[in-house]
Amino acid sequence: xxxxxxxxxxxxxxxxxxxxxxxxxxxxxxxxxxxxxxxxxxxxxxxxxxxxxxxxxxxxxxxxxxxxxxxxxxxxxxxxxxxxxxxxxxxxxxxxxxxxxxxxxxxxxxxxxxxxxxxxxxxxxxxxxxxxxxxxxxxxxxxxxxxxxxxxxxxxxxxxxxxxxxxxxxxxxxxxxxxxxxxxxxxxxxxxxxxxxxxxxxxxxxxxxxxxxxxxxxxxxxxxxxxxxxxxxxxxxxxxxxxxx
Length: 245
Prior knowledge:
The chain has helices at residues 2-6, 45-54, 71-85, 104-111, 157-161, 171-188, 209-222, 230-243, and strands at 12-15, 35-38, 41-44, 58-63, 91-94, 115-116, 135-138, 145-150, 155-156, 194-195.
């Protein structure tokens, strides 16, 4: 948060739920009542979530594996996060980017989400759907346009830096890749969506990863961008669509 605050940025924190009913081996196991350390004091995960929301960051849902195709599961997880932070949750990203284009858009819409940012690469970076521009999703069965906009994921830390899979880059090359993507997005006036996982910022777990994020933020700041949450980007797209309809 402090790194983003220094450049005037706010982002979206996607929280994995603690009420998963349909379990998958890749799902996380923890509680929103677990204690963590933040700003030199102990607080629960739930208290941290409320702090984020209060200070202008967006709290979204990081849906569990099976929630990508189960409406009851996704709705229960969304409701759980909403009860914790005391406000609506409108943005979602699915665990491991698990997504079925035939069913997930409709599940997201019926669960009440307005914005998704799942469509990207686990092991690569770039424009998976050929664009950096958000777009409204459709129901592949009925061909109806859904009230859910996709804000595509362009790059994530693990795809760039994981030494066991993905691109397996060093820090300098990863920075170069992100800047090349930035140049391309700026050229067309698109959206550069980056994902950095909080568990990877610890210096002993992933040396240099957090410093890379700080360096990227500083370089982006020098280019005078609009830093925004997923919800803010989505709302901007909705306003533009209404203006030009």
